[in-house]
Amino acid sequence: MNVPMKSRILLAMALGAAAALCGGCASISTQSNAFLGSPHYPPTTAASVKILMEEPKQPMERLGQVFLSVEGQPKREDLERRLREEAARLGANAVFVVSDKLHVFPYVYWDPWWGPSGNFEETRRDIVGIAVRLK
After folding, report:
1. pTM to 2 decimals?
2. CA nearest 86: which of 28, 36, 37, 38?
3. How far apart are CA 100 and CA 16, in angstroms?
4. Three-state SS across 20-48?
């Protein structure tokens, strides 16, 4: 297949622009599950949920787990808001973070037909919290 040079250049520019636009994209997927046998509470307001970096010392009831799967680089405020929202669905008034891990996936590509070779990284962050009801 003989593709004119001008068409190859335009296609390479379009692909580069699409990659640049998506490079700034960020997404947050959330999921929560109640622990079996945990007490049932009505949902609380997200604004009333405290985010703690360690397990609280005061008496509490563990309600369930909250998972955030993050792609890109969203703002910290967005992550905290989503963590509070998921914990609030379980009836929690606090959530403490038990795991916050960043995974980096490097990519290297080489294309002799459409343009120069290069490399880039894609990141994914997984956050796990325990939703609790402080007494």
Report:
1. 0.72
2. 28
3. 32
4. HHHHCCCEEEEEEEECCCCCCCCCCCHHH
What are phi and psi for residue 12, nearest 5 degrees?
-60, -40
CA distance 83 to 74: 13
Q: For residue 76, what are the contacts with CB-CB under 8 A and spacing of at least 6? A: none
pLDDT digit string (tens) for 96-118?
999 999 888 777 766 667 666 67
Please compute the mean of the pLDDT values over residues 73-78 and round it to a whole number: 93
Mean pLDDT of 83-89: 97
Tally of structural domains, the chain: 1
* Residue span of the structural domain in which 10 resides: 5-134
